[in-house]
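Hello Y.,

Per our agreement to keep a running log of every chain we model this quarter, I'm adding this entry. I've kept the format consistent with earlier entries: sequence first, then predicted structure.
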Amino acid sequence: MTLSHPETNELSRLLIGAAIEVHRELGPGLLESIYEECLYFELESLGVSVRHQESIPIIYKGRKIIGTYRPDLVVNDLIIVEAKALEKVLPVHKAQVLTYLKLLKIPVGLLFNFNTEGMTEGIVRISL
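Predicted structure for the entry above:
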């Protein structure tokens, strides 16, 4: 799937705005599951298509492998969103998003770390 930059950029801006709104309402210091649920609610209220915690099937040599790969949110089947509440984003967190991108063949992921003073400090964009 090839997307033009305007498509992914516009949707990314919408998602970042939603994350900023959640952070503005809640601030840092909560569990990531709370931010994830609130972000899901925020995105649904904006009218975007959001899949929440759906399992990704792994197919290996024609066989379905049971796995526990569940991205937090898949938005419009174009962008994966992972919500975190970390002291610091590490390479393993970025690798998690990259894994979801590869498995779902989605070109863009946004990792939101809500454990920051300002939400813009906690945004990481990852692409294939």
